Amino acid sequence: MFENFERHLKEQELSKNTVDSYMFAVRQFHENYGTVTLKNLRSYKTWLIENYKPKTVNLRLRAINCYLESIGKEKWKQPVVKIQNKTFLENVISEADYEYFKSRLKEDGEMFWYFVIRFLAATGARVSELIQIKAEHIRLGYLDLYSKGGKLRRIYFPSSLQKEALEWLAESGIKSGFVFLNKYGERITTRGISGQLKRLAGRYGIDTAVVYPHSFRHRFAKSFLERCNDIAFLADLMGHESIETTRIYLRKTATEQREIVNKVVDW
User: Fold this and answer.
1) How much is the pLDDT for 251?
2) DSSP alpha helices (H): ranges in 157-210?
3) How many CB atoms lie within 10 A of CB 106?
4) What global pTM score does this model have?
5) Domain extents in the chain
6) Could you tell me what percent of the chain has a pLDDT over 90?
7) For the domain 95-264, what is the CATH superfamily, name and number?
8) How far apart are the first and last CA of the chain?
9) Which residue in 130, 92, 103 sits closest to 220, CA to CA?
10) Which CATH fold topology does 2-76 show?
11) Phi/psi of residue 204, each to 5°?
12) Longest dimension (CA), the chain
């Protein structure tokens, strides 16, 4: 049963992470509720809502619905829960904190981590994409990625970053291959990057809540829109399927909202 569903997912060319998360949800359902009945599905949904955040609930429900499709029980698919969108962005590193973080890393000779946040914030790359960068890509000036549907997304390296990174590679003796490696010479994991960024933020007195890999992708988007108000182009750069996803970056962070209110409201 599980093997058939896993085969079904792989035939759809879903990512390994998606396959793993969908398989986890289906196993979780069967371990707790056994047979697939409408009553059990509704009970599982209620249990999810009581124990998980809405995004996790919807991820599990999408997995279950996909499973139901694969066994011919589409009519029992469960509606996802509605997520109330916030009117502000949360936990995005400020431009000032980003500049401070960069300068302190450079002063301390932490050039590996300096370039980790530089590439994330100057390209809008996801951390999973960051670790795919090779020296050859830096010399070329961009990294081409292909989605499961064969759609091309090009991640550009700004000339200032490219020049600085090439100097770093020369000094480090890196002529080819992956750039972001761990101490064992293997590609560093996304978890390893996340953990070390938190530790470095703590060292420099930066709020660790705003320091995580995706925060720098948010920083790229907000800074880009402040300098180039072309949201359609940004959507392409970010690899968003829909421009509606990109519109969130038109919003202010909670801190920015408060600063504006404090400045404007004087009555």
Assistant:
1) 82
2) 159-172, 190-203
3) 14
4) 0.67
5) 2-76, 95-264
6) 62
7) Intergrase catalytic core (1.10.443.10)
8) 66
9) 92
10) DNA polymerase; domain 1 (1.10.150)
11) -100, 10
12) 66
